[in-house]
């Protein structure tokens, strides 16, 4: 079949991919008509592409504004370092967005079920693999094209040099190829997990390692450019280029490619390393192109046979638990086996590790790391509805079992609190080791009942609304009223203890007064949980 | 307050249910007696699933009342769910759990002890799902998921079974086994509320039938009584009686005529 015809068929496949990814990411209850209507609106190709286009245009504009602001009055030799690092950061940030925005959609592209309707049509296997490749391009099309064009135009305005403009275009394209290549193996793996969740301990452990490596790599792609921006700002204030910025500009692709461009035009001392780095980037991108096309050439519509394991196990081996423990066990399994939600379990320790690395490299000071615990606690408040959302379409099922609402909520609140506690223990160990013990650092552990209570109250709100209004969790969470409520919960349960400690600190009161106030607050928080009325499941 | 007679296990009285402006149920009333299979029969969208979801306590009625062995599903849902084994129309099981883990979870939540193990094991072997114990539910076929849902509903030997299109997706062997199980349940003094739109099944297993259409019970009785209601000679099949009662027979002949004309 002609490529043009296949391209037009891929439009329908992409529409389905977008809808499925939306349903999956939001864990929408398909029997909730209101949620489905919202999902249809939210997964409209026109709406989604417009949003992508806006992000794609705004980001390069803000980056080039930084270039104008930073390097306007700096001598050329220094400016080359800064401009290279800023451009490299922009390109990396774009790559981060490509990976983040495209992963779930790309995973659905690798699910055979998407192509089953096509198998009933007059299409060959080769046609279907081309459709899959074209659908994959559709995931990124507007974003990649918009970013590349806008940043090239801005580069021409900024540098007034066609070679540098071409360089921006070229490096941006190479990094996008690499980002798409990076997406594929992860997407293939995620698609398998979506089809058949791993259940054995070994597989779950491998998956945790996989999540951790993926989240860590992705975080670094995000953290590195953000960090370089703040470092450049510091460097300009100090009036010298730090070794960190210099090393990035000369040795690390894609930063070094921009440095090479400036060096070739304006002259610079070092060109061997940037040339090697750029060649490395080009070779890697060519490999990327080869691998992307090869993956789709080998693409086949078949469900893995290993999906169905037949092995008889006698029921007498059942390990019966109490109701609450059974719920807790079920919630942990659902969470850990869901690609979208599993990172919730590790988010605290993971973020702490990243910031710890930054601290060890001298990029953040200790107060930043300590104060981050309040942000993280707030993050848990806003993420906690995801656990009801995870139940999503199963909420009707749990309501056919003799389960108490309080147990249902408690189990989920406990899981998130334990995840937070891991972070809190890390922070306390950190301050003890570094000898920076203060009352603010200890608050992350002191306010543990506050953290639990805040999560509990938010979950109770979602559950109560879901039952009384007969709506899915997704419909409830996506309202302004709900987020206003979440904000109030955050202020009361997480910000208030900090405010109390600040007053104690500024007013010159003894630290034990702060500790007593925090303990009293914990009693109040616990009382709010006990008094909270829950709708019957 | 509805008074439960000795033999009434489910009493549904004047149920009204709105979805927005749409009136899904318009005063539905019926009773299920001890030892009977009550068939709730109706076309798609008639209100069968909404009625059943109110009975098991998933939905709340706007008006009317339900009692299950004297308990209200809205006021005392936990007790009602212990009394009921429910197979929903849309099977939503925890797909990332294995069949084994799922049974273990249900058994734990329902507070079962070792005495039930051989029963669960026998059910699993009868429906041939024991070979999938280690398989995540997501990887099962629709028919096997249906079997898992049936076992989960029967596991605690409840006095009442509420079954919403339970045979949909089952192979002939499993459907036959399931019908036998329903019979055994009745012989042991249990009761069944059974919803379907497949006439043959209703005709072969139901003791009494309530015909629901546009959110109202149009007629109720044994199959013989329904045949008499349509004023025929008593030889009409349940399907014919149903089409007459729901006034869909004429509509069908118009549709068939139109199809013939367009097809040429």
Please, could you describe this protein's structure?
The complex is a heterodimer of chains A (537) and B (264). Chain A has 537 residues and is an all-alpha fold. Chain A contains 22 helices and no strands. Helix content of chain A is 79%, strand content 0%. The termini of chain A are far apart. In chain B, strand 6, helix 6 and strand 7 form a beta-alpha-beta unit. The mean pLDDT of chain B is 87. Chain B has 264 residues and is an alpha/beta fold. Chains A and B meet through helix 12 of A and helix 2, helix 3 and helix 4 of B.
Summarize the structure.
The complex is a heterodimer of chains A (537) and B (264). Chain A has 537 residues and is mostly helical.
How many beta-strand runs of chain B?
Answer: 9
Spell out the helices and strands of chain A N to C: HHHHHHHHHHHHHHHHHHHHHH
Distance between the termini of chain A: 54 Å
Strand share of the residues of chain B? 15-25%
The structural class of chain A is: mainly alpha
Written as H for each helix and E for each strand, in order along the chain, the element string of chain B is EEEHEHEHHHEHEHEEHHH
Strand content of chain A: under 5%
Radius of gyration of chain A: 26 Å
From the structure above, extract its key features.
heterodimer, A: 537 residues, mainly alpha, 22 helices, 79% helix, B: 264 residues, alpha/beta, 6-stranded mixed sheet, 3-stranded antiparallel sheet, 10 helices, 9 strands
Topology summary:
The complex is a heterodimer of chains A (537) and B (264).
Chain A: H1 3-26, H2 33-42, H3 45-71, H4 76-109, H5 116-119, H6 125-159, H7 162-195, H8 201-238, H9 243-251, H10 255-266, H11 272-297, H12 323-336, H13 343-360, H14 366-383, H15 385-391, H16 395-398, H17 405-434, H18 439-446, H19 448-468, H20 473-477, H21 480-506, H22 511-531
Helix pairs in contact in A: 1-4, 1-6, 3-4, 3-6, 4-6, 4-7, 4-8, 4-9, 4-10, 6-7, 7-10, 7-11, 8-13, 9-10, 10-11, 12-17, 13-14, 13-17, 14-17, 14-21, 17-18, 17-19, 19-21, 19-22, 21-22
Chain B: E1 8-19, E2 22-33, E3 37-41, H1 48-55, E4 63-68, H2 77-83, E5 84-87, H3 99-109, H4 117-126, H5 142-154, E6 160-164, H6 172-187, E7 191-196, H7 199-205, E8 208-213, E9 216-221, H8 223-229, H9 238-245, H10 249-263
Parallel strand pairs in B: 3-7, 3-8, 5-6, 6-7
Antiparallel strand pairs in B: 1-2, 1-4, 8-9
């Amino acid at each position: 079949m002609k490529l043009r015809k296949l391209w037009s068929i891929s439009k329908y496949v992409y529409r389905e991919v977008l809808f499925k990814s939306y349903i999956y990411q939001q864990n929408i209850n398909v029997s909730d008509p209101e949620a489905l209507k919202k999902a249809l609106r939210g997964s409209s190709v026109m709406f989604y592409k417009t949003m992508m286009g806006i992000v794609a245009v705004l980001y390069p504009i803000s980056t080039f504004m930084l270039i104008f602001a930073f390097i306007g009055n700096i001598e050329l030799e220094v400016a080359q370092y800064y401009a290279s690092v800023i451009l490299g950061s922009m390109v990396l940030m774009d790559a981060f967005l490509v990976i983040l925005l495209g992963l779930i959609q790309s995973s659905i592209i690798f699910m055979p079920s998407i192509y089953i309707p096509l198998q009933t049509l007059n299409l060959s296997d080769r046609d279907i693999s081309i459709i899959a490749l074209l659908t994959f391009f559709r995931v990124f099309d507007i974003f990649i094209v918009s970013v590349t064009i806008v940043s090239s135009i801005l580069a021409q305005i900024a540098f007034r040099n066609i070679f540098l403009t071409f360089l921006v275009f070229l490096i941006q394209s190479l990094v996008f190829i690499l980002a798409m290549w990076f997406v594929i193996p992860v997407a293939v793996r995620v698609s398998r997990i979506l089809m058949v969740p791993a259940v054995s301990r070994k597989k779950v452990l491998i998956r945790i390692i996989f999540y951790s490596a993926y989240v860590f790599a992705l975080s670094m792609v995000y953290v590195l450019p953000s960090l370089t921006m703040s470092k450049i700002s510091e460097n300009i204030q100090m009036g010298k280029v730090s070794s960190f910025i210099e090393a990035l500009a000369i040795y690390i692709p894609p930063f070094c490619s921009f440095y090479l461009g400036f060096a070739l035009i304006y002259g610079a001392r070092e060109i061997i390393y940037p040339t090697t780095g750029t060649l490395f980037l080009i070779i890697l991108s060519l490999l990327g192109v080869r691998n992307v096309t090869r993956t789709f050439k080998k693409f086949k519509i078949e469900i893995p046979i290993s999906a169905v394991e037949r092995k008889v196990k006698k029921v007498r081996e059942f390990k019966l638990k109490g109701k609450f423990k059974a719920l807790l066990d079920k919630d942990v399994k659902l969470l850990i086996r869901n690609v979208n939600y599993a990172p919730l379990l590790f988010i605290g320790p993971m973020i702490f590790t990243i910031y710890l690395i930054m601290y060890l490299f001298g990029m953040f000071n200790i107060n930043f790391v300590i104060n981050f615990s309040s942000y993280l606690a707030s993050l848990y408040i806003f993420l906690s509805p995801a656990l009801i959302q995870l139940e999503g379409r199963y909420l009707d099922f749990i309501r056919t079992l003799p389960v108490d609402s309080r147990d249902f909520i408690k189990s989920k609140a406990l899981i998130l609190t334990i995840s937070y506690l891991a972070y809190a223990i890390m922070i306390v160990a950190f301050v003890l080791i570094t000898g920076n013990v203060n009352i603010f650092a200890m608050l992350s552990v002191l306010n543990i009942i506050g953290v639990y209570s805040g999560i509990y109250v938010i979950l109770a709100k979602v559950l109560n609304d879901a039952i009384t209004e007969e709506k899915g969790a997704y419909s409830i969470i996506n309202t302004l009223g709900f987020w206003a409520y979440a904000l109030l919960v955050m202020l009361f349960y997480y910000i208030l203890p900090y405010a109390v400690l600040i007053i104690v600190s500024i007013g010159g009161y003894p630290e034990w007064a702060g500790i007593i106030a925090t303990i009293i607050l914990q009693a109040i928080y616990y009382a709010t949980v006990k008094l909270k009325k829950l709708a019957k499941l | 307050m509805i008074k439960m007679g000795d033999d009434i296990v489910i009493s549904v009285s004047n149920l009204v249910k709105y979805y927005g402006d749409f009136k899904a149920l318009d005063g539905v009333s019926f009773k299920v007696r001890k030892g009977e299979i009550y068939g709730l029969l109706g076309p798609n969208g008639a209100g069968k699933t909404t009625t059943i979801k109110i009975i098991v306590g998933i939905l709340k009625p706007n008006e009317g009342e339900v009692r299950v062995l004297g308990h209200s599903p809205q006021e005392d849902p936990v007790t009602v769910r212990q009394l009921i084994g429910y197979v929903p129309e849309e099977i939503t099981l925890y797909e990332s759990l294995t069949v084994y883990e799922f049974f273990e979870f249900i058994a734990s939540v329902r507070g079962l002890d070792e005495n039930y193990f051989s029963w669960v094991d026998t059910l699993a072997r009868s429906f041939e799902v024991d070979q999938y114990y280690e398989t995540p539910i997501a990887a099962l076929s629709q028919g096997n998921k249906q079997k898992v849902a049936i076992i989960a509903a029967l596991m605690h030997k409840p006095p009442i079974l509420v079954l919403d299109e339970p045979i949909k997706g089952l192979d002939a062997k499993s459907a036959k086994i399931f019908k036998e199980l329903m019979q055994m349940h009745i012989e042991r003094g249990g009761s069944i509320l059974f919803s379907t739109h497949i006439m043959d099944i209703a005709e072969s297993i139901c003791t009494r039938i309530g015909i629901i259409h546009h959110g109202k019970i149009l007629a109720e009785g044994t199959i013989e009584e329904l045949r008499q209601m349509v004023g025929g000679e008593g030889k009409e099949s349940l399907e014919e009686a149903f089409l007459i009662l729901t006034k869909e027979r004429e509509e069908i002949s118009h549709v068939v005529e139109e199809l013939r004309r367009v097809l040429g």
